[in-house]
Write a sequence for this structure.
C-alpha cells in the first residue's frame, strides 16, 4: 500500500512540477511574440493554472504525510545506521519547505485571483517562483531518497 | 487583497509559526508510528514505543495559531500588510530552513 501511495505521490509531483514551472516561467515572459522553445514554454496565461496547482500541492502534502511514518520507521533509521546525515538533512529541508509552501497557498491564490491586480505582478512572479523551487526541491529529494533505499525494499 | 484578509493572516502566521514551532520545538503532540498512537507526551521511551514524530504536531500548532490570529487580528490591520511580503516572507523562511538544517551537513 505504501508503495502505491509513494508512486501516486511521485506522479502528482510530476503533474505539479509541470504546472507550477509553466506558470512561473510565464511571469517572466516579455510581451513579445514567442520565437524560441523557451519563449513558447513561457507564453502561457498563468491564472488558469492556479486552482489546479493549489489542489495538486495539497494532495501531495497529504500523500507525503501518509507515507511519512513508513519513512520514519524504515528509511531514516537505515540512513542513520549508514551515517548518511546529508540524506536526512535534505529530507528535513523538504518537509519544512512543503509546509512553508502549503501555508502560503492562500496568499498565492489571492494574488492570482482574476482580474489580476497589476500592482501584484512582482509578488506573483516571485511567490510562484518560490513555490516552483519548493516543488522542484521536494521532487528531486524524494527521488534521491527513494533511490537510496531502493524500490520495494 | 482585503477580501481575503483572514486567509492572509492565517497564511503568514501559519508559515512563520511553523518555523517557530520547529525551532523552539512546540509540537501540539507527538505521533508514535510504531504504535500508530498520538500522545501529548513528547518523550515516551523509544525502546518500547519506537521513534516519535513531531512533524504533525508542529503543523497543528502553527495551523491553530494561524486560525486564532486570523479571527483575532482586525481586518484594518491586515489590509495594511504590504504586497511585497507575499514573496519576502516565504523567501526568508526558505533561506532560514536551509540555515536551520545546516547542522546535518557538517560532521
Amino acid at each position: 500500500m505504501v508503495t502505491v501511495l509513494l508512486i501516486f505521490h511521485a506522479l502528482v509531483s510530476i503533474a505539479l512540477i509541470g504546472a507550477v514551472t509553466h506558470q512561473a516561467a510565464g511571469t517572466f515572459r516579455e510581451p513579445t511574440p514567442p520565437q524560441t522553445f523557451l519563449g513558447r514554454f513561457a507564453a502561457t496565461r498563468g491564472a488558469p493554472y492556479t486552482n489546479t496547482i493549489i489542489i495538486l500541492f495539497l494532495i501531495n502534502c497529504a500523500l507525503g504525510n501518509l507515507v511519512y511514518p513508513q519513512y520514519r520507521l524504515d528509511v531514516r533509521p537505515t540512513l542513520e545506521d549508514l551515517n548518511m546525515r546529508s540524506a536526512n538533512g535534505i529530507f528535513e529541508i523538504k518537509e519544512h519547505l512543503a509546509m512553508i509552501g502549503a501555508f502560503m497557498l492562500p496568499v498565492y491564490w489571492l494574488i492570482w485571483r482574476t482580474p489580476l491586480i497589476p500592482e501584484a505582478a512582482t509578488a506573483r512572479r516571485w511567490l510562484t517562483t518560490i513555490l516552483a523551487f519548493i516543488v522542484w526541491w521536494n521532487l528531486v529529494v524524494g527521488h534521491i531518497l527513494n533511490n537510496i533505499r531502493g524500490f520495494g525494499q | 487583497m482585503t477580501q481575503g484578509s483572514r486567509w492572509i493572516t492565517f497564511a503568514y502566521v501559519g508559515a512563520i509559526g511553523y518555523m517557530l514551532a520547529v525551532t523552539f520545538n512546540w509540537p501540539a503532540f507527538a505521533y508514535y508510528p510504531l504504535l500508530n498512537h498520538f500522545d501529548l507526551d513528547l518523550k515516551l521511551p523509544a525502546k518500547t514505543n519506537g521513534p516519535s514524530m513531531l512533524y504533525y504536531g508542529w503543523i497543528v500548532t502553527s495551523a491553530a495559531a494561524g486560525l486564532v490570529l486570523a479571527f483575532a487580528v482586525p481586518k484594518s490591520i491586515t489590509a495594511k500588510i504590504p504586497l511585497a511580503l507575499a514573496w519576502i516572507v516565504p523567501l526568508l523562511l526558505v533561506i532560514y530552513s536551509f540555515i536551520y538544517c545546516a547542522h546535518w551537513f557538517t560532521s
About this structure: The longest helix of chain B spans residues 5-23.
